[in-house]
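Q: What does the assembly look like in three dimensions?
Context provided by user:
Components: two
Sequences:
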Amino acid sequence: MALIVQKYGGTSMGSVERIEHVARKVMMARERGHQIVVVVSAMSGETDRLIKLAKSISARPVPRELDQMIATGEQVTISLLAMALEKVGVPARSYTGSQVAIRTDKAYNKARIQKIDTERLIADCKAGIVPVVAGFQGVDEDGNVTTLGRGGSDTTGVALAAALKADECQIYTDVDGVYTTDPRVEPKARRLDRITFEEMLELASLGSKVLQIRSVEFAGKYKVPLRVLSTFVEGPGTLITLEEHKMEEPLISGIAFSRDEAQLTVAGVPDRPGIAAAILGPVGEANIEVDMIVQNVGADGTTDFTFTVSRGEYERAVEVSRKVADELGAKGVRTALDICKVSLVGVGMRSHAGIAAKMFKTLASESINIRMISTSEIKISVVVEDKYLELAVRSLHKAFNLESAT
Amino acid sequence: MALIVQKYGGTSMGSVERIEHVARKVMMARERGHQIVVVVSAMSGETDRLIKLAKSISARPVPRELDQMIATGEQVTISLLAMALEKVGVPARSYTGSQVAIRTDKAYNKARIQKIDTERLIADCKAGIVPVVAGFQGVDEDGNVTTLGRGGSDTTGVALAAALKADECQIYTDVDGVYTTDPRVEPKARRLDRITFEEMLELASLGSKVLQIRSVEFAGKYKVPLRVLSTFVEGPGTLITLEEHKMEEPLISGIAFSRDEAQLTVAGVPDRPGIAAAILGPVGEANIEVDMIVQNVGADGTTDFTFTVSRGEYERAVEVSRKVADELGAKGVRTALDICKVSLVGVGMRSHAGIAAKMFKTLASESINIRMISTSEIKISVVVEDKYLELAVRSLHKAFNLESAT
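A: Here is the predicted structure of the complete assembly.
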């Protein structure tokens, strides 16, 4: 008998029929002899509806009041699921973040979990009752309702699994696992049986939006085995584990990509210490998040400094960069919007040379020009023209033999 | 400077514009130097929407879970109103029933308030903050959310006013006070400046659905001055007070009526002790609420036993009565659905003889046949054919001179 935390997202809670489907899934897991604790999100669209309502009162709603209000989304779904469970004969009890209690700091709209009181949940499990816990929300030391920010229900699931020392945290979503790349771009993309936390972090941050990054970090930190599965299709999903659990290390786990990229180059800046800080300081102060950063060494005592930002921040980034370029006496700012980023991810590349060379050669054989390169221990990213995105992903998928199980 | 509890109902909270209107009303009351504590209902229709959602999962939703869910209706409006108050420059803070805390028993769906912790609210008032409290809901000793039943927000308002020793509890609704009768039936109906708790109870229970009966009882018990006002029209409303506060006692305060009546007569039952219990016992056991009861003394050792029920319970009442009639050897059961009840209410009638006679004479002069009479200290009710309802109300309104202020 295992203790399993199951987390169901907004799509899985999207209608009465789906909630009843989730109730049957919980019932079956229980019939297999497991103790189940459930974490749920609000019905899909509900949180947005509530935020819109708040914004129709005030463009900048008081953060405490916004949290108080949007926490109702999960309060509805926990109750509905508990009712649906009782209806199929499974004793159940719903808990808000306050009722558990899931203690957080006071950072409304983006609170961090500090401590979870598990007594009630453990007592319920022992009594054969399934606790249904509201994701995304907590309570501060003064009893104020807080929320964890977008995707926070995954974090609730993982944090609960860690606090309960659960055997597994299962994240049910509308995809049946983590894929080698997006199947909409490469139909031969393959579901991975296993992936490491580190790889998952790289894939998640690069646009494979299966799991919230914070929840993966959290699971890695507390060594909670995490499994991504589909609510709607039966299957083993993808298990996200610590590296040492893997028996055979594939070279590459997957290919991530992002179209939400814009490139800025501050050209002809004096090549001297502190220049990166001189450029990126003002950009950071303007609250613009920088993704890739590359600095080329120039021949004439100047250098080109290139970085990428998300497209939504492009115009502000150009404005700040032009100002900085003037101050530094640079030649100017070159920009590009028609670009994308493609990344190879795999812990296996740590111990294998030649991955980067093979990647560049594959792209060259398709006449895809690389505009920018950035590497980390388990990832190689390139920026290319965005019209090449599909071609780049598919040729790399084939070159690294991702369609067949390793 | 007075401490005033203002309660706004679902219609007053029905849209963003209306919530902003309420915020301005609170702001103005505050500018007149008062300390304000606000109690609000859910947006009109929201509680019904949530109950419907629950019933689509289960015909008989688990009571605890239903309360957990429907309590979200007020959790949304307290947050929205607090945001709207902050926007017009009034510091405000929302509180759920749990957060206050409003302690209740464990009777889900119809909980009773046991105790209210007022520290936070008093601290807020002292700090110039307007607490916005969720009506209709509370929390039991184990932290479970409870609700007080339909119209419970009025009770929350009155209970808070009692606990805070407020100078007045103002119930804002979509009517501008309590009228001598329903203006839709008698356009000359007049708003009463004052009315006693007892009269209000009789009027409320007889169909003038301005206030929830429990809240009036509560206000009377704790001597909280209660005022009914309109959210949308300026005016003094109607003050509901203890009898001794009244200077001039009008004979009659108002005329209540109800179309939701059905009459059953168990005819020719043996006229012996215990017969009322023998008939009403089975009716009560079937959970049918009986309103008026009349027993006529018969000449032949038998009697006719007549009572009224609401129309929704008519068919079940007939069924039970026929069974009882058979067992008692009665002659049979006569029924009538085309009836209504009209009641004169007034504490003044206590010390004045002749009210009943004047009432019957007025009805007789309009050729309205009285089918049943029932009297209490401050009320005289008659059952007449329902086609005479308007005529009866208008002729009594005129006969007792209710259109002109006394």
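Follow-up: The longest strand of chain B covers residues 262-270.
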